[in-house]
Amino acid sequence: MNVRISAALAVAAALLVGGAHAASTPAVFTTNDFGFDPLFSSPDTIGFEFTANTRIVVDQLGVFDSGQDGLTDGHLVGLWDANGNLLVSVLVEGGTGAPLIDLHRYASITPTVLKAGQSYFVGAYHADFADTPADISYTPKVDPRISLGNYGLGNAGGFTAPNFIIPPRDYANFTISSVPEPSTWALMLMGFGALGVASRRNRGGLMAPTTTRVTQT
């Protein structure tokens, strides 16, 4: 295998094994970094509805960190389908240990594929609003791969899909992976391997045949 193919394989393998989160993009970009104390304080789930405009892969779920100085509590964050069925959830730990991207702290999940044209909910559970949501009474910047729907509460006093409409309050978020899925990498690696085999064959075909000199006595 020549040097170029070896290098390409090394790069592909490194990207496959390396973390995908460095290339992940927040679904919603919040610009207000201050919290808003809501009038309600009972346990509930706050988040928003959205539609996937194309097939996307969600790889992290997050919760808003007012002031970016750490979360007072840990928060369950979930992703639900349009019927309120929980697809995946994760606990974002309190403090400053969870990675901060934009104004949210995130925890990794098993990469979850969302279908184009389908609606979903994302929401973060709070017990007492020790960590306040952001007041975003404006049009936020949204990743073009999704369309933002209504903001809402779980309206059930627990960890449920936030499908009861409230004024805009940014609390939950998620990131969309910008790295090809493992199946795509596998196909790429197979392609590189085929190139390597072809390279060896071509190189072997160009080699001059060896000859044996016979000396007569």
What does this structure look like?
Strand 7 and strand 8 form a beta hairpin. This protein is 18% helix and 36% strand. The relative contact order is 0.26. It folds into two domains: 37 residues; 156 residues, Jelly Rolls. It is an alpha+beta fold. It has a six-stranded antiparallel beta sheet, with no helix packed on it.
Question: So how many helices?
Answer: 2
Calculate Rg over CA atoms: 25 Å
Strand order of the largest sheet: 6-5-9-3-12-13
- Low-pLDDT sequence parts: 5-21, 206-212
Work out the helicity level: 10-25%
- Tell me what portion of residues adopts beta-strand conformation: 35-45%
Order of helices and strands: HEEEEEEEEEEEEEEEH
Report the average pLDDT across residues: 78
CATH class of the largest domain: Mainly Beta
What is the rounded distance between the termini? 44 Å
Shape: globular
Strand tally: 15
The class by helix and strand makeup works out as alpha+beta
How many separate domains make up the residues?
2
CATH topology of the largest domain: Jelly Rolls
Oligomer: single chain
Topology:
Layout: H1 3-17, E1 25-26, E2 28-29, E3 44-52, E4 56-64, E5 75-81, E6 86-92, E7 100-101, E8 104-114, E9 119-126, E10 134-135, E11 141-142, E12 146-153, E13 164-165, E14 169-170, E15 172-176, H2 182-205
Features:
6-stranded antiparallel beta sheet, Jelly Rolls, alpha+beta, 5-stranded antiparallel beta sheet, 2 domains, 18% helix, 217 residues
